[in-house]
Each structure stands twice: as structure tokens, then as C-alpha cells.
From TrEMBL:
Organism whose genome encodes this protein: Ganoderma sinense ZZ0214-1
Compositional bias (Basic residues): 494-504
Start and end residues of each stretch annotated as Disordered: 1-25, 57-94, 473-516
The name this protein goes by in its record: UV-endonuclease UvdE
Keyword field: DNA damage, DNA excision, DNA repair, Endonuclease, Hydrolase, Nuclease
Biased composition regions of type Basic and acidic residues, renumbered to the chain: 57-66, 505-516
Length: 516
């Protein structure tokens, strides 16, 4: 193999005539041939040049600016100057309105019946259709607690405003009744909260405008309005404080009807109340209170009603005939605590008192819930009534005391074809709830279903409950607690059940502060 030849370059020192430094030597091929012919071409070959070219930037100053100020958007601002930029307004989110489709109720047909009754059917206090109206329901029982009255931002002004709204809605209620051919209504006793209270009571004169409007509307349409003061309105109580509170309650109802401008047909219905250990002594106290402590306005509107526990129609009829007090006959109560006299004979004597007093007779109708067996279960009213009583007089007013209120009246309208009904205002009947089963033990004694515990009820609440029971006559006042009450089931024996806490859990003992 031949050896590699070495590259050699022949440089010539050439000096120009001007005395300059010698030019770089010429590059010569190995064969002796020259690549370039001039020194400039040789310099280009020796110097390594880059293919990239530098970008020439011309920084020209703006002659219009002084003191060397830089050109830019921030130079126009002063140092002390602030710029408040308003944020861009947020786009409101558009919410689509829900399309509320009308509810179509499935109203089943009814089995029609015949009757000769030509009077008015009514319901008590609340209209279920108007109560469910949104967003502004219509009802006449807005109320509050005393704790709310004591709050600085509420007070008595708030309490009275609730009463004024209740009176306003009464006119709307009467108008709805007229449109649906219902011309008999029981006004709520809670129309004006705490109006008869000993400390927080007040006059109804401030709501005279609203009450007069409701009364004028009722007289225009020929509606009858009545009231039923609470169960604690007991004129035969042995305690004077209870009797005084009952009289204040009756005066409150009288003032309400008086401001409405209603006549004597707007009555106030009460019960005789508890037995208080001696039924006859209680009746005598009632007579004395009626004669000596009631005003003429109260006596003109006061009527009694037979109850299902203490006083049946046989007990009250002699008192009513003696004092000329009308008697409201309740068919349901008479079924639970029946009178000895037959119903047609009783009604004839009762109606004679009504006519003598110049007031149109009035009766109450209700039915027990399906499946009721014990006395306490039978007392509960069913949602609706299935039929009118057979001994019902033709021309009188009948109050339907049912849970479905106006729907119970419209149901009887359809059964007996008493008045045409508006189908849009009909509601289906809800299925009845079964009662808790009461069991029989091996001895045939009944075991009542266990009651649900109420939170926050301590010994004070138990004492208040015993006091209320004593006051109402369900428990004798002169017998020391614990009392015994009979738990009855149809077809079985009775067993006394103590009202005291025979067995108390450790949790309840700890809550009441007792030993663990």
C-alpha cells in the first residue's frame, strides 16, 4: 500500500511597493497548481465564515420626547394617578321557569242516595284547597307563642297583625264557599291569637274593618258563621280562675261576632266539661255561673253540646230546658255515650228550645275511623261521612266534623245530589291509616300499644299533664297519684294501667336528674 501524501502549502512573501505587510501565502495543490490567483481570494479561504447573518436593529430615538423619556403606554400616566377599572358585569344566569302542569285528580264515582234534607251543610275552620294555595295560602288560624311576643322584633304588633290577616282571609274563605254552594262555616277560635289572655289579651277594635267586611259578605250571601271555643272553656269548674278565663274567652267570641254585625244565629258552642268528682255538683256550679256572671250578649249566643265521655243528651236536656239554653245534638257522641231516650224524641224536645229562643237548630255529624275498637279510637273522626243520619230533620243546619273539611261536604253533595259541584275543586279520599293493634295476653287482659316518647318532657310536664287531667275531670282531684285508668278493648277484659312512671330507663333517670 502506497503511503499517504502530506498536504503542503507554498507561501510566497509578497511585498507591495507601498511597504505593507506581506500578504498571506497562496494555497497550492499538492500537484503544484494554485487554487487562487490573488491574495484576497486566499484570505477568504483561510477565514472561516458563518452562513448566519446578524440582524441589524436601528434604535432610533423619538425626537418629540424630552428628558430621555421612553416611548410606551405607561409614560402617559402620572405617578400619583390611579386608574379604577370597573369589572365587567357578570352575566345574569337565566333560570328557566318551571312549567307547572295542572294536577288531574282521579275522582271515583259515588253511590247515590236520596234524602229529604233541605238544610245547610258546613265544615269547621279550615279549607284544604285554599290552605294548599302557593305562595299565599288562605287560612284563618295563624298563631304564635308567647315567647315570640316577648321578642323585641315581634311583640304585640306582630301578634295583632296575624289576627288582621286571619280576618282578611275569612272574606276569601266565604267567597270560595259561595262559589261552591257551601253556606255554613265554623270560624276558628284562633282567629285572634291570645285575644282572651289574662296578660296579653287585647280588643278587636283595631280589626273592625276586616271583620265588618267578612260579616257583610256573609249576610249578603246568606251564610251562617258559628264558633266552638276550646275544651278548656268550662263554666262548671270548681276553680274560679278557670271560670274567669272561660268567661273572657266567651267575651272575645261575642266581640268578634258583634263587629261582624251577625245576628243570634252565630252561636258559641261549649261542653259542660269535666265531672270533677261530682256530676250534679258541677251542673249546679254551671247554673250559678250562667245566671250570675255571664252578660246578656253571652247568654244570647251560648249553647251546649252533648259529649262522648261525661255528659250525654239525657244529662244536659233538663239543664237546657231550665235555663232556656239550646242543645246541639252530636250523633257521633251519642253513638259512643248513648242517651236512654230515642233520638226522634230527643230531637223533638231539643228543637223546641231552639224555636223558643228564635235560633235555627244546628246539629253535628261525624263518623268513627274504620277499624276503631276502643273508646279512644272511636272518638277519632273519620276523613268523611258516608251517609246522613236517618232521623235528620228536613230544615236545619248540619255541621260535618270530618278531617277532609270541605271535601267531606262536597262528598255528601255528590251522594245526595244536594248541590252541583265544581270538579276542579274535588280531591280524592286518602286511604285510612290502621290503628295500632292492642294485644290480648294469655289471661285475656289487654295490653295497650306503647306510646311514643316525647322529647323534652320532664317531671314538670308530667305534673302539668296530671293537673290538666284533674282540671278536665278525667282524673279525680281528691285522689292521690298515681291514678289508674282502664284500658278497654272491645271483646276483652280491662286492666288498670298506672299513670305514673313505673319503669324508668337509666337514660330517662339521668335526664330527670335522678339516680343512675
Amino acid at each position: 500500500m502506497a503511503p499517504k501524501r502530506k498536504r503542503t502549502s507554498t507561501l510566497s512573501a509578497i511585498t507591495d511597493s507601498g511597504g505593507h505587510e506581506p500578504s498571506p501565502p497562496l494555497a497550492v495543490l499538492p500537484t503544484g497548481m494554485a487554487l487562487v490567483s490573488t491574495p484576497e481570494e486566499a484570505g477568504v479561504l483561510i477565514r472561516r465564515s458563518s452562513t448566519r447573518r446578524k440582524k441589524v436593529v436601528d434604535y432610533a430615538e423619538d425626537k418629540s420626547q424630552e428628558d430621555g423619556a421612553l416611548d410606551g403606554p405607561l409614560t402617559e400616566l402620572e405617578e400619583d394617578e390611579l386608574v379604577d377599572e370597573e369589572p365587567a358585569p357578570k352575566k345574569k344566569r337565566r333560570t328557566r321557569k318551571k312549567v307547572v302542569e295542572p294536577v288531574i285528580y282521579d275522582i271515583p264515582p259515588v253511590d247515590t242516595k236520596e234524602t229529604s234534607f233541605k238544610g245547610r251543610l258546613g265544615y269547621a275552620c279550615l279549607n284544604t284547597v285554599l290552605r294548599a294555595v302557593k305562595p299565599d295560602p288562605v287560612f284563618c288560624s295563624r298563631t304564635l307563642r308567647i315567647d315570640t311576643i316577648l321578642k323585641p322584633d315581634h311583640g304585640m304588633d306582630y301578634c295583632k297583625e296575624l289576627g288582621r290577616k286571619n280576618a282578611e282571609d275569612l272574606s276569601r274563605l266565604i267567597q270560595w264557599n259561595e262559589e261552591n254552594s257551601i253556606r255554613f262555616l265554623r270560624v276558628s277560635s284562633e282567629m285572634f291569637p291570645f285575644a282572651s289572655h289574662q296578660e296579653y289579651g287585647y280588643s278587636l277594635d283595631y280589626a273592625e274593618k276586616e271583620l265588618k267586611a267578612a260579616g257583610d259578605l256573609a249576610r249578603k250571601y246568606g251564610h251562617r258563621l258559628t264558633s266552638h271555643p276550646g275544651q278548656f272553656t268550662q263554666l262548671g269548674s270548681p276553680r274560679d280562675a278557670v271560670v274567669t278565663s272561660a268567661i273572657r274567652e266567651l267575651e272575645y267570641h261575642c266581640q268578634m261576632f258583634r263587629l261582624m254585625g251577625l245576628d243570634q244565629d252565630s252561636i258559641m258552642i261549649i261542653h259542660m266539661g269535666g265531672v270533677f268528682g261530682d256530676k250534679q255538683a258541677t251542673i249546679e256550679r254551671f247554673k250559678e255561673t250562667y245566671r250570675t256572671r255571664l252578660t246578656d250578649d253571652i247568654r244570647a249566643r251560648l249553647v251546649l253540646e252533648n259529649d262522648e265521655m261525661c255528659y250525654n243528651a239525657d244529662d244536659l236536656l233538663p239543664v237546657c230546658e231550665e235555663l232556656n239554653i239550646p242543645l246541639v245534638f252530636d250523633y257521633h257522641h251519642n253513638w259512643i255515650y248513648p242517651s236512654v231516650k230515642p233520638i226522634p224524641e230527643l230531637i223533638a224536645q231539643i228543637n223546641a228550645i231552639w224555636h223558643r229562643k228564635g235560633i235555627k237548630p244546628k246539629q253535628h255529624l261525624s263518623e268513627p275511623c274504620p277499624g276503631a275498637e276502643t273508646v279512644m279510637e272511636k272518638r277519632k273522626h273519620a276523613d268523611r261521612c258516608k251517609a246522613l243520619p236517618p232521623d235528620l230533620p228536613d230544615d236545619m243546619d248540619l255541621m260535618i266534623e270530618a278531617k277532609d273539611k270541605e271535601q267531606a261536604v262536597l262528598h255528601l253533595y255528590r251522594i245526595y245530589d244536594l248541590h252541583p259541584v265544581i270538579h276542579e275543586n274535588l280531591r280524592p279520599e286518602k286511604p285510612s291509616k290502621p290503628f295500632p293493634c292492642a294485644c290480648l295476653d294469655e289471661d285475656g287482659l289487654t295490653t295497650a300499644p306503647r306510646r311514643r316518647k316525647t322529647k323534652g318532657k320532664g317531671k314538670a310536664a308530667v305534673d302539668d299533664g296530671v293537673a290538666d287531667a284533674v282540671e278536665s275531670g278525667l282524673v279525680d282531684e281528691d285522689v292521690e297519684t298515681p291514678k289508674t285508668v282502664q284500658v278497654m278493648v272491645s271483646g276483652g277484659k280491662s286492666r288498670p294501667k298506672s299513670t305514673s312512671k313505673a319503669r324508668t330507663s337509666k337514660k330517662d333517670q339521668k335526664k330527670d336528674g335522678g339516680p343512675l
